[in-house]
TrEMBL record:
Catalytic activity: D-mannitol 1-phosphate + NAD(+) = beta-D-fructose 6-phosphate + NADH + H(+)
Annotated InterPro entries: 6-PGluconate_DH-like_C_sf, 6PGD_dom2, Mannitol_DH, Mannitol_DH/Oxidoreductase, Mannitol_DH_C, Mannitol_DH_CS, Mannitol_DH_N, NAD(P)-bd_dom_sf
A molecular function GO annotation: mannitol-1-phosphate 5-dehydrogenase activity
EC number(s) stated in the UniProt entry for this protein: 1.1.1.17
Keyword Chloroplast: no
Protein origin, superkingdom: Bacteria
Positions of the Mannitol dehydrogenase N-terminal domain: 29-284
Pfam families the UniProt entry points to: Mannitol_dh, Mannitol_dh_C
Name of the protein described by the UniProt record: Mannitol-1-phosphate 5-dehydrogenase
Keywords: NAD, Oxidoreductase
Residue span(s) of domain Mannitol dehydrogenase C-terminal: 296-477
Alphabetical list of PROSITE patterns matching this protein: MANNITOL_DHGENASE
Length: 485
């Protein structure tokens, strides 16, 4: 198929597949960091519907923080892409028109800076995954020892806002440009899986300003406090990385070549804390929930969905399973999710949450055979994910004197997956892979467990001898591919 999906060919699409908006009528009012599948299947979809239903011209300029390929691929089709809802026995596809342009964080720094400084842009959003926040694993604050952060901080001494390498550096430098240009209020919205993600983002931005050489940093800190909102959010939709088969299937269904399709489950949820400093799209028109406190939803999602995703990933990899649905279909899969959730649920706030209903829905969502969500994808970046997903519950339970058998097994499965071999033993990858591999050198298994915990910022858990030995006891069975649960 040679005709490409782009603005001049959308007329060839069946009416039910056309974008809800004409991108030519939208304006760049949102800058988004992170061009991945999740953003396009989530915030881009909500924003398109909000623009269509309100007749307000909310358009997104998306910034690719790292590689050029996704940005070039998006531009080659005028940033149009299809979203397929995958469900057992079929799917539904349509093209989304809310992304207007794609830019590269370093090569297009000047345009990004101008956009974020312009008062027409009222909202910055981001999906840059845990590693995009440059946090110190122990403190959660900006990791000023990170070489990218160090280089960006050095750049603040020369007064040129453009050479930034990290997302935090780029975002903060452009917010500083906005402050100096008009000082117009702005929303900066984290859409990543972290507890109190807005506060986490605010902390690294403030940390960057504090460590910068900018002479006006005190005034900038005041402005951040009064005029920039960092609401916390919960984002949810299972969207696996796009495969070549997805590209072929989308192109066939559309009748136009789409090199950047996304496919995910039909379910999606977005909860935002009602704390904005400037105008933003009326995402409620597409079902987003705007609430006084996103905390309880966030803990439930992070601890139950992401937490059980991670246990399924590491147990499943040990048992040589490939996808979430495969793992769930094993004789231990559903039990792992339900027992994990039962253990962790005791740490959730009493806020009228329907935990039982949530867990039933999870089992159904994870079992969706049409999704093909690779365990390796979920298992990657474990050193950053499990401290968010498992450790707060593990700490709370142990401090309260509760038994933690499922979390111990989960941790053992992660330890098992960090064994060196290729990058990591199951082909998952981790920004800390080298440091993790060093933990395995010349030590007996209980010592390896303690070293690994320390390496990912959990020295307190490493000192919990009962925990460490319980984790180490599971390793031989896991190594042999046996799941004992
Ligand atoms: C997953 C998440 O890759 C992962 O680690 O747990 O991406 C998960 O699919 C989403 O958070 C669902 O909303």
């Amino acid at each position: 198929m040679s005709t490409m999906l782009n603005r001049s060919t959308t007329g060839e699409l069946g009416p039910e597949m056309r974008p809800l908006v004409d991108p030519g009528e939208l304006q760049p009012r949102i800058v988004h960091f992170g061009l991945g599948a999740f953003h396009r299947a989530h915030q881009a979809v909500y924003t398109e519907a909000a623009a269509a239903r309100s007749a307000q011209p909310w358009g997104i300029v998306a910034v690719g923080p790292r590689s050029a390929a996704p940005v070039e691929a998006a531009r080659a089709q005028d940033c149009l892409f299809s979203v397929t809802d995958r469900m057992p026995g079929g799917g539904r596809i349509r093209v989304v028109g809310s992304v207007l342009d794609a830019l590269m964080m370093r090569a297009d720094a000047e345009r990004i800076d101008r956009l974020i400084a312009s008062p027409e842009v009222t909202t910055v959003t981001m999906t840059v995954t845990e590693k995009g926040y440059s946090r110190d694993p122990g403190t959660g604050l900006l990791n000023t020892a990170d070489p990218g952060v160090t280089a960006d901080l050095t750049a603040t001494a020369v007064g040129d806002p453009l050479p930034m390498r990290t997302v935090v550096g780029r975002l903060t430098a452009s917010l500083a440009t906005r402050f100096r240009a008009s000082g117009a209020p702005v929303n900066v919205i984290s859409c990543d899986n972290a507890a109190r993600n807005g506060a986490a983002l605010a902390a690294v931005v403030r940390g960057f300003v504090e460590a910068s050489a900018w002479p006006d940093r005190d005034a900038l800190l005041d402005w951040l406090q009064t005029s920039v909102a960092f609401p916390c959010t919960v984002v949810d939709r299972i969207v696996p990385a796009t495969t070549p088969e997805d590209r072929a299937a989308a192109s066939k269904a559309l009748g136009l070549r789409d090199e950047t399709p996304v496919a995910g489950e039909p379910f999606r949820q977005w909860v935002l804390e009602d704390r904005f400093a400037a105008e933003r799209p009326p995402w409620e028109l597409d079902g987003a929930l705007v609430v006084p406190d996103a905390g309880p939803h966030q803990l439930m999602k992070l601890r139950l969905l992401n937490g059980s995703h991670s246990i399924l990933a590491y147990l499943g990899l040990a048992a040589r399973r490939d996808t979430v649905a495969d793992a769930l279909g094993s004789d231990w899969g559903e039990r792992a999710v339900r027992r994990f959730a039962a253990e962790v649920a005791a740490t959730l706030p009493e806020a009228g949450l329907d935990v039982a209903g949530y867990v039933d829905a999870l089992v159904e969502r994870f079992g969706n055979p049409a999704i093909g969500h690779r365990l390796r994808q979920i298992g990657s970046d474990g050193s950053l994910k499990i401290p968010e997903r498992w450790f707060p519950a593990l700490r709370a339970l142990r401090a309260g004197g509760f038994a933690t058998p499922v979390l111990e097994l989960a941790l053992a499965a992660w330890v098992n997956a960090t064994r060196p071999g290729g990058s990591q033993v199951f082909g998952t990858d981790d920004p800390a892979a080298e440091a993790l591999a060093r933990c395995w050198r010349g030590a007996a298994e209980p010592a390896v467990v303690a070293r690994l915990l320390t390496a990912i910022g959990a020295a307190d858990l490493a000192e919990d001898a009962g925990l460490v030995s319980a984790v180490a006891d599971h390793l031989p069975a896991l190594r042999a591919g046996r799941i004992e649960l």
